[in-house]
Amino acid sequence: YLYLIIDRNADTRMQKSKVEMDKILSSW
């Protein structure tokens, strides 16, 4: 159960960083 919460948290963090990367790439 706890693992699922951590996994979801990591997933959202991954998506957030991906969005940041897309922003950086699009600004180039």
Explain the overall architecture.
This protein has 28 residues and is mainly alpha-helical. Helix content is 93%, strand content 0%. It is built from one helix and no strands. It has one helix spanning 2-27. The longest helix is centred in the middle third of the chain and has 26 residues, at 2-27. The mean pLDDT is 80.
Q: Would you kindly provide a brief summary of this structure?
A:
The protein is mostly helical and 28 residues long. The chain is built from 1 helix and no strands.
Keywords:
single chain, mainly alpha, 1 helix
Instruction: Identify low-pLDDT runs.
Output: none
Radius of gyration: 12 Å
Beta-strand content:
under 5%
Give the end-to-end Cα distance, rounded to a whole number of Å. Answer: 41 Å
How is the biggest beta sheet arranged? none
Number of helices: 1
| Molecular shape | rod-shaped
Total count of strands: 0
Arithmetic mean of pLDDT: 80
| Helix fraction by DSSP (H/I, runs of at least 4) | over 70%
Order of helices and strands: H
Structural class: mainly alpha
Task: List the topology elements.
Blueprint: H1 2-27
